Amino acid sequence: MATSRRNFLKSASCASVPFILPSHIWAGATKQSDLPNMAFIGLGIQARGLLANFLQQDVKVVAMCDVDKTRREDGVKRVDDFYKDHPDKGTPGNCKGYSDFREVLARKDIDLVCVATPDHWHAYITVAAMRAGKDVYCEKPLTYNIPEAVAVMKAAKRYNRILQTGAMQRSSFEFLTAAELVRNGCIGKITRVDCNFGGPSRPHFDPPKDIPMEPGLDFDMWCGGAPLVKYNDQLAPRGVHNFYPMVWRMDDLFGSGYCGDWGAHHLDIAQWGLGMDNSGPVKVTKAERTEKDKANAQLGGRAQSGVVLEFADGVKLTHNPFSTFGTVFYGTDGTISVNRGKFEMTHGKELVSTYSKKGDAGSLEGALAKARKAFLTDSTYKTKLYKTKGGHPADFVACAKSRQRACSNEDIGGRAAILCHLCNMSYVRDASFDWNPSRNTFANGTGNPAWLVREGGYRDNWDVHALTKRWWTL
Ligand SMILES: NC(=O)c1ccc[n+]([C@@H]2O[C@H](COP(=O)([O-])OP(=O)(O)OC[C@H]3O[C@@H](n4cnc5c(N)ncnc54)[C@H](O)[C@@H]3O)[C@@H](O)[C@H]2O)c1
Predict the structure, then answer these.
(1) Whose Cα sits closest to atom 33 in ligand 1?
(2) Which residues face 113 on adjacent strands?
(3) How many angstroms is it from 237 CA to the middle of ligand 1?
(4) What angle do CA 23, 116, 224 make, to 5 degrees?
(5) Does residue 168 have its Cβ closer than 6 Å to ligand 1?
(6) What is the CATH code for 171-207+242-386+412-474?
(7) Which pLDDT value is given to residue 113?
């Protein structure tokens, strides 16, 4: 028997009742009418890539939402054009454009939502979507701050929703291999980890001159719970282009610098390798600021690298600048270094295998196979980590059907976001502090709870905590 999406929705929306749909019920659900309906909220550069991928999955894209008219119309056209060319997958003309995401979430026929707005909107839209009975693919870092991460982790459970964080390195074989080698003790006991990415967020600066607003952008809704700042076409770039928007990422009010942007990937892989997916560090030690750091007002006088996160077992994770490898594990018997398309393993004084760029001898696959064959043998390969099939978006769609947890579920994405924010907070506050990863609070009288929340509160009640009426305790 195939379950129609209408029946699926009816059962899935009983949010207070635990809901597990056996995967065999979905097995025959390949008819177009039975496929889940999907919406996209936030249609920037990342959403375009995700859309191209999700259109290939067993979903029908029926709603495209952006506060920018040009991007919204372009999104709808992309969907229509795809279904014109692939009538077996969907019907052109069925996808509607929206400026206000609340109208999308109010649609009862929508099952899946992809959130690819700037980070300051992630938590609110994700929790609102889950409360409305939708499963959510939300981009990384999962949230803008730590209490928001706690809220998303709790909301996914409260509403029995499937959540996938867009930290797609979890679906790449080089990262899986690195984490499995570490977790199976192939380089001995881990003593330290390096995570290599750019610097922290920066103070907000308004443009020196007024920039005229082009029509078709709801900038108030773009700013959301953040302060309504002066319009800035670098902060919220208009139009459909390949300009990578770094300004909001680096801005204290909207992002968390590279700590959130790349930290969400490389710190996440460190957590995976260390087996810390349900925990986190207990101590954060600040980086010493150089005279050059102090003199740089644009960067807020902040140090740019060197924060150390220490785990309860004594493992120290250091944030260093961008480098060839994103995450490097140091063990008593060797090292494992990994990045996208790059892998290296040493054991004792031996180089086991290496591949980091075109032109190197061999291939990435060869380097991974050599390390796996030598070290993940029948007797050592005890810990097998979650291996996705068909990639990160496909894992989300499969999990929404099977009701199994996704490979980068709310706890994994939430905990990774917490690491990003601990790291960024240490730079912004120029502070060292102790941390309680069970309660997600400062420990031993250190830190300041005011650092955890949005300074000045949220504007216009765009506060995820108001949404959930504080049914959790921090
Ligand atoms: N997984 C990855 O490797 C990866 C790569 C790039 C970006 N990202 C993440 O994807 C997200 C989007 O990044 P981007 O580079 O595409 O940014 P972007 O600025 O290009 O796109 C964001 C879009 O969201 C829209 N938006 C803002 N507020 C909105 C609202 N209230 N409702 C609807 N739309 C709204 C903006 O108008 C814009 O079109 C970020 O969280 C980023 O960290 C992830």
Answers:
(1) 66
(2) 39, 136
(3) 11
(4) 125
(5) yes
(6) 3.30.360.10
(7) 98
Higher pLDDT, 467 or 415: 415
3-class secondary structure, 245? coil
Tell which residue, 464, 376, 399, 352, has the closest CA to residue 164.
399
Residue bearing the CA closest to ligand 1, atom 25: 42
Distance CA 43, CA 75 (A): 7
pLDDT of residue 378: 87
pLDDT class of 458 with cuts at 50, 70, 90: very high
> How far away, in angstroms, is 339 Cα from ligand 1 center?
23
208 burial type by CB count under 10 A (0-12 exposed, 13-18 middle, 19+ buried): exposed
Q: Which residues contact 179 (CB under 8 A, 6 or more apart)?
A: 269, 272, 273, 385
Is 171-207+242-386+412-474 in the same CATH topology as 5-169+391-411? no
Ligand 1 pocket member 42 (CB < 6 A) = yes
> Measured from the CB, is residue 118 less than 6 Å from ligand 1?
yes
Angle at 319 between CA 316 and CA 323, to 5 degrees: 125
Cβ of residue 75 lying under 6 Å from some atom of ligand 1: no
Closest CA to 226 of 121, 139, 125, 380: 121
Mean pLDDT, all residues of the chain = 93
Q: Is 374 in the pocket of ligand 1 (CB under 6 A)?
A: no
Ligand 1 pocket member 45 (CB < 6 A): yes
Distances (CA, A) of 93 to 80, 88, 204: 6, 14, 41
What tokens were used for 139?
């981009």
pLDDT digits (tens, 9 = 90+) for 41-64: 999 999 999 999 999 999 999 999
**Residue 97, ligand 1, Cβ within 6 A:** no
Query: According to the CATH classification, is domain 5-169+391-411 in 3.40.228.10?
Result: no
Query: CA–CA separation, 216 vs 22, rounded Å?
Result: 45
Strands of 60-65's sheet in order across = 96-98, 60-65, 37-41, 112-115, 135-138, 163-165
Protein residue closest via CA to atom 7 of ligand 1? 46
Domain boundaries, the chain: 5-169+391-411, 171-207+242-386+412-474
Answer positive or negative: Cα dihedral of 438, 451, 191, 183: positive
> Residue 8 pLDDT more than 60?
no
> How many other C-beta atoms are found inside a 10 Å radius of the C-beta of residue 314?
12
Query: Ligand 1 within 6 A of 124 CB?
Result: no
